[in-house]
From TrEMBL:
Family matches, as CDD domains: PRTases_typeI, UMPK
Reaction(s) catalysed by this chain's protein: cytidine + ATP = CMP + ADP + H(+); uridine + ATP = UMP + ADP + H(+)
Family: In the N-terminal section; belongs to the uridine kinase family.
Broad EC category: transferase
Origin superkingdom: Eukaryota
Gene3D superfamilies named among the record's database cross-references: 3.40.50.2020, P-loop containing nucleotide triphosphate hydrolases
Location of the Phosphoribulokinase/uridine kinase domain: 62-248
Record protein name field: Uridine kinase
GO function terms (MF aspect): ATP binding; glycosyltransferase activity; GTP binding; uridine kinase activity
GO cellular component: chloroplast
Length: 481
């Protein structure tokens, strides 16, 4: 039977594949899932642990950016990174893998060819890329263009990411390096423009004088460009004329990467799902709370910070009325008034960890509680509820830090609706959501809003979110010892 690629079921089936913080990388799993015939949605409930093992080492998308010196490689990479702000992106510079010069070579530095492939430690670069591709961090050397040496005491720690960008004049030269790339970009800028930029950059930033720059350019840079860089242009998938000035090309590249990564597929399917905009601060806090070695104090501290961000974002979805005030300058400021008919409802016990953040944002807010007993996973049973009497007149912020299967959430939402709360007046706040939970809640309650800070890969056999962070309540309240 032909597959209807525009049907909602087809889209949802596709979107329920392995996610890594809200993205899916088509065809980039390092090894196929054990049960490759079953759809991802089925795998998560039947072949859970095999799926989880296979899905976790999702491979990053590797982009190579090549081009002559001062063509704008670094500038283009910075622009791509900026536009891919929803993803974990790391930049690896081939320059970092320059071999440090020996004392003899230093004495005759003007005779050294920094533009020849041998000037780089390509074995080490390969090692770095392979580690990053397999999800491991790497200590990248720090190279100094003034002393022509590597810093012996410090490194730049680069962590595994969704996207790895490797840039450098000779990144397409070695076939083994090329083979690791999912996309190859060549930045094509006129030689005279490049020379002008190079003179300015090397005199301003690299401690050179004009004569030495021109001499090095004629003796090594230009010949090596003709011999090694230009011939490697044929490997490029995309050629960008005019480098960073070419906004159309950069937009297209970013769109392609986003399509490959399945950026926020779930947010496209369910317009009421909001993932707070990721920053390195947020990634950093997630890294800490997901680390099983973190102290209880730090777990609570960073969870609280993240919860506060989710709560603030959630409050932004409440209705408002216009309000005018007079400022101390006597002028009128037209602003908005907060929604007053509001309450929180925490799903006991871990939802209670979100109450303080809600109280800190909304002075005197009423908070109700719901306890759902977990008997296996399907036998969810409501066993306690204490809700404000006038809850039907309020907007409800439902609190639970982890959305896994969605069964508890659905029970809680059912109860709120029974109590007369309109579905569209409920905002479900959590830190981590599994795609299965999002499908489960959003299919049933399409007008409810979900605000989360990251979407994880999947749930496993034991209905735990992968990679997740374990039992949130136990870690937060210190009952996991
Ligand atoms: N489109 C541009 N317009 C003006 N200056 C640019 C442009 N792109 C890059 N530059 C400047 O040219 C120099 C080299 O650019 P860079 O991106 O570092 O090139 P590469 O990494 O290819 O050597 C830098 O000083 C940068 O600020
Ligand atoms: N000690 C060094 C090392 C390298 N170079 C030059 O740097 C160029 C590569 O960097 P880009 O940012 O321009 O791609 C390369 O052309 C080398 O000549 C150097 O001058 N000194
Ligand atoms: Mg550069």
């Amino acid at each position: 039977m032909p597959v209807e690629t525009d049907s909602i079921d087809y889209v949802m089936e596709k979107a329920s594949g392995p996610h890594f913080s809200g993205l899916r990388i088509d065809g980039l799993l390092s090894s196929p899932p054990a049960s490759s015939t079953s759809s991802p949605a089925h795998r998560s409930s039947s072949a859970g642990s095999a799926f989880a093992e296979a899905a976790v080492p999702t491979q990053p998308f590797v982009i190579g950016v090549c081009g002559g010196t001062a063509s704008g490689k670094t500038t283009v990479c910075d622009m791509i990174i900026q536009q891919l702000h929803d993803h974990r992106v790391v930049l690896v510079n081939q320059d970092s893998f320059y071999r440090g010069l020996t004392p003899d070579e230093l004495l005759r530095v003007h005779e050294y060819n920094f533009d020849h492939p041998d000037a780089f430690d390509t074995e080490q670069l390969l090692d770095c890329l392979e580690k990053l591709k397999s999800g491991l961090p790497y200590q990248v050397p720090i190279y100094d263009f003034k002393s022509h040496q590597r810093c012996s005491s410090s490194f730049r720690q680069v962590n595994a990411s969704d996207v790895i960008i490797l840039e450098g004049i000779l990144v397409f030269h070695d076939q083994r390096v090329r083979n690791l790339m999912n996309m190859k970009i060549f930045v094509d800028t006129d030689a005279d423009v490049r020379l002008a930029r190079r003179i300015r950059r090397d005199t301003v930033e690299r401690g050179r004088d004009i004569n030495s720059v021109l001499e090095q350019y004629a003796k090594f840079v230009k010949p090596a460009f003709d011999d090694f860089v230009l011939p490697s242009k044929k490997y490029a998938d995309v050629i960008i004329p005019r480098g960073g000035d070419n906004h159309v090309a950069i937009d297209l590249i970013v769109q392609h990467i986003q399509t490959k990564l399945g950026l926020h597929d779930l947010c496209k399917i369910y317009p009421n799902v909001y993932v707070i905009q990721s920053t390195f601060q947020i990634r950093g806090m997630h890294t800490l709370i997901r680390d099983r070695e973190i102290s209880k104090h730090d777990f609570v501290f960073y969870s609280d910070r993240l919860i506060r961000l989710v709560v603030e974002h959630g409050l932004g979805h409440l209705p408002f009325t216009e309000k005018q005030v007079v400022t101390p300058t006597g002028s009128v400021y037209t602003g908005v008034d907060f929604c007053k008919k509001l309450c929180g409802v925490s799903i006991i016990r871990s939802g209670e960890s979100m109450e303080n953040a809600l109280r800190a944002c909304c002075k005197g807010i009423k908070i109700g509680k719901i306890l759902i007993h977990r008997d296996g996973d399907n036998g969810k049973q409501l066993i306690y509820e204490k809700l404000p009497k006038d809850i039907s007149e309020r907007h409800v912020l439902l609190l639970d830090p982890v959305l896994a299967t969605g069964n508890s959430a659905n029970q809680a939402i059912d109860l709120l609706i029974q109590k007369g709360v309109p579905e569209s007046h409920i905002i479900f706040l959590n830190l981590i959501s599994a795609p299965e939970g999002i499908h489960c809640v959003c299919k049933r309650f399409p007008s409810l809003k979900i605000v989360t800070s990251e979407i994880d890969i999947a749930i496993n056999d034991e209905f735990r979110v992968i990679p997740g962070l374990g039992e949130f309540g136990d870690r937060y309240f210190g009952t996991d010892d």
